[in-house]
Design goal:
binds magnesium ion; Rossmann fold; 11% strand; 42% helix; single chain; binds adenosine monophosphate; five-stranded parallel β-sheet; alpha/beta; globular; 280 residues
């Protein structure tokens, strides 16, 4: 079968995923980021096929990451309710051994967590060498939901952009590779997905009345996301704004970014002394 170059991903053929990267220091206008765009692949079945191969390759690369034990990866997922954070974990990590990846879901902070600085609970969950950690929500909630609901004073959350950049710089200096994905869905797509949670009995458990209330604050959230992307996309820890109305495209691009990043590390299996013999 003829595979279109557009959707290609292979040893020597990279997707041009930089189109979705927020260039550090650039001005971000959220309305310019199209949630429905698929510039790197316009064929769903080809895209899915590529995704499956990427997922398999990620499994191999994770083993190498663990064997080499020099790097670790932190993947941050942020997005509105129903944007697909759980689905991304399920698909992108489908080829990785459960032993090789740690998924951390950040919920409303506990009283004990609130007694500490906002990065305390986050730092405790960062990956160690050889590990992939995925943050399903993250320290960015502290400049999103916290800002939108005024849970702390503005002068407190405003300082957090800089505090986050410094924190992430500390992590990367210690060998962590940080990749951050904003799952960008449209307000209309969210309506459909929330409705599906109401209509489909197998999705009822995902439905929360609070989600309807949060939806009313959509514009405030978009402003908060815009500032977050603009102020915290850095060279050491870039944001990617992933068009996420099409789930298959979201999975394809996130998988490709993670695989391409791991490939670029030039990892090698460690040399092992194999002298000696297996005895009964
Ligand atoms: P879910 O991801 O649907 O399980 O919901 C988790 C909830 O926890 C969301 O409503 C988040 O906004 C909330 N949450 C996560 N982190 C924080 C935080 N630092 N402060 C306040 N709420 C948070
Ligand atoms: Mg929820």
């Amino acid at each position: 079968m003829q595979v279109k170059a557009d959707c290609a991903w292979g040893e020597n053929q990279r997707m041009k995923t930089n189109v979705h990267r927020i260039e550090p220091g650039s001005k971000v206008r959220i309305e310019d980021l199209d949630p429905d765009a698929t510039p790197l692949c316009d064929d769903k079945s080809e895209g899915k096929e590529r995704s499956a191969r990427i997922a398999e390759r990620l499994g191999e690369l994770q083993e190498l990451l663990y064997a080499e034990h020099r790097h670790n990866i932190l993947i941050v997922l942020q997005g509105m309710d129903t944007s697909g954070k759980d689905g991304t974990v399920r698909h992108v990590m489908s080829g990785v051994s459960p032993a090789g990846v740690r998924v951390v879901s950040f919920k409303r902070p506990t009283p004990s967590e609130l007694d500490h600085d906002f990065l305390w609970r986050v730092h405790a969950k960062t990956p160690g060498n050889g590990e992939i950690a995925v943050f399903n929500r993250s320290h960015y909630e502290d400049v999103l939901v916290v800002r939108v609901h005024g849970l702390v004073d503005e002068k407190v959350w405003r300082k957090r952009y800089e505090q986050i950049n410094a924190f992430e710089k500390t992590l990367t200096a210690g060998g962590t590779i940080i990749l951050k994905f904003f799952l960008n869905i449209s307000k209309d797509e969210q309506r459909k997905r929330l409705q599906a949670r109401i209509d489909d009995p197998t999705k009822h458990w995902k439905f929360e009345h609070g989600d309807i209330e949060e939806r009313k604050l959509w514009d405030d959230y978009m402003k908060a996301y815009e500032d977050m992307l603009e102020k915290t996309s850095t060279k050491h820890a870039p944001w990617y704004a992933i068009p996420s109305d099409a789930k298959w495209y979201r999975n394809l691009v996130i998988g490709a970014v993670v695989v391409e990043t791991l490939e670029s590390l030039g990892m090698e299996y460690p040399k092992v002394d194999l002298s000696g013999e297996v005895v009964e």
